Amino acid sequence: MARTYLVSFLFLFVSACASSSDFDMLKRDINDVRRDSYETKKDVDRLKERTTGVVKEDSFSAVRENQADINSRLTEVSSNLRELQGRFEEYKYNTEKTLKEAAAERDIARAQIASIETQIKAVKDKLASGEVAAQKQPEGQKAEPEQAKTEPATEEHAKEPANDKVKTNDKTKTYEAAYQAFKDKKYKDARGKFEGFLKEFPKDKLSGNAQFWIGESYYAEKDYESAILAYETLLKKYPESDKTSGALLKQGLSFIEIGDKKTGKTILARLLEKYPNSKEAPLAKKKIAELEKKPAGKNGKKR
């Protein structure tokens, strides 16, 4: 607006002082200046548009590059997480397997210790019987041979520790042989040996363990129905066994394997309620969580 006033003022001033030809020349110059100004403005506007487009394109390119970098990093992190999860599952499996084998080895060690204790007791009884017989011998009577001093005082007393010793040895050997067959994956042979052990020693402290391994042999063969019955026998006949929590876990898993997930989940929940601090409790909790996260089917129900 100020430029227009200035031009008008110059025009008036020149019109008063100049001739007609000078006026026409000045008017042409003014028009040329206006035209040049208009063209310059158009060039500036075009330059602005081009510059704006370049800035936007550069910005979009930077965003795309950042997004691609983030996606690449996320993919790498996911891959690392899957690898770590795989290692964890493998470690967990190996740990559980080691613990199970260690428990079985512990049972064998206990049986061996019991056998040794029985043998020591038998030796002590023999020594005590020999000392009593020596004290009761009349003065002047000829001493009996050394072998006689170590014999029990009566035949009945002699038979008891000897029989106990034989039974303990047989029991330990039978159990060890059955468990070795199980470790060798000879499940049918192991099952027969454990059943023989239970028939001969039905009330032994290892009877519950033997019944548990019978169930495990069926489970290893994927005969889940028979495994369920074997675990149930353990729970009913040997409720005080330290294998009851393990039997509940495997019984629940067996029901799930045959498709009865409702019963399996109920048994696992009972395990958590009855043995919340057992080593099987976390496994039961994880399995229940997996069952509850099953995807829904077409009708909206969980599969």
Automatic annotation (TrEMBL):
Residues 131-170 are annotated as: Disordered. Keywords: Coiled coil, Signal, TPR repeat. Residues 1-20 form the signal peptide. TPR repeats lie at residues 208-241. Residues 99-126 form a coiled coil. GO terms for biological process: cell division. InterPro entries: BamD-like (IPR039565), CpoB (IPR034706), CpoB_C (IPR014162), TPR-like_helical_dom_sf (IPR011990), TPR_rpt (IPR019734). Residues 139-170 have a biased composition (Basic and acidic residues). NCBIfam families: tol_pal_ybgF. This is Putative TPR domain protein. It comes from Candidatus Sulfobium mesophilum.
